[in-house]
Amino acid sequence: MQKAVIEVKQMKDFNSDVRKEATEVFVDGYKKELGFFSKDRKKLVDAFQKMLHPEVFYLATLNGEIVGVLACSDNKARGLNIDRNTLKKHFGLVKGNLGYHFMKDDFNKKLPYDDDTGYIECVATSVKARGKGVSTALFQHVLHHSAYQRFILEVIDTNKIAYQMYVKLGFIDMERKKERFSSFKGFKERIYMKLEV
């Protein structure tokens, strides 16, 4: 049996608008975190695809289907632009405002890094493609095909599988920050990691 080939390219390089398909992978990967807004997958996809920045997203395909996403942001553009009105429209006044409050600092703040630093965020793989090397292929593509000299990412302390993968890729711990409202968010600290290339 022939091994399936994973292909990676920037979202902006696809011949059609694949924002919906990419957002489906993102929503599936962050189902637990986004569950605060809704359990309705379609509603989540409809809301978050409007906030995605195609210029910084890389997509992995397996047999032509989008199965992985990764944003390589910098101090000019982030993976998502969290919009209060979009959140309120899709999830109501209370959840929209609360969600905006909790997410805006994670995504809307300008990154404090130099021009030569890429910030990796929004990494997700579809359920059926997990364990097939999709995330690794995304990382390897970005690490070898971008002009950044340094990469930084963050991972929460409860995501041990992702943390181990980042260590295997050569990332090292840079800083750990205690999380406010940790019992509400489900993790205690954010681990910031870096890789110099």
Which helices and strands appear, and what pairs or packs with what?
Blueprint: E1 6-10, H1 19-29, H2 31-34, H3 41-48, E2 57-62, E3 65-73, H4 84-91, H5 93-107, E4 117-125, H6 134-145, E5 150-156, H7 160-168, E6 172-178, H8 182-185, E7 189-196
Parallel strand pairs: 4-5
Antiparallel strand pairs: 1-2, 2-3, 3-4, 5-7, 6-7
How much of the polypeptide forms β-strand, as a percent range? 25-35%
Secondary-structure element order, N to C: EHHHEEHHEHEHEHE
Number of strands: 7
Estimate the helix proportion, in percent: 25-40%
CATH class of the largest domain: Alpha Beta
User: Structural class given helices, strands, pairing?
Assistant: alpha+beta
Q: Strand order, biggest sheet?
A: 1-2-3-4-5-7-6
- Bulk shape: globular
Describe this structure as you would to a colleague:
This protein is an alpha+beta fold. It folds into two domains: 6-148, Gcn5-related N-acetyltransferase (GNAT) (Aminopeptidase), CATH 3.40.630.30; 150-197. It contains eight helices and seven strands, in the order βαααββααβαβαβαβ. The chain has helices at 19-29, 31-34, 41-48, 84-91, 93-107, 134-145, 160-168, 182-185; strands spanning 6-10, 57-62, 65-73, 117-125, 150-156, 172-178, 189-196. Helix 1 packs across helix 3, helix 3 packs antiparallel against helix 4 and helix 4 packs antiparallel against helix 5 (93-107). The radius of gyration is 16 Å and the shape is globular. The protein starts with 5 loop residues before the first strand and ends with a strand.
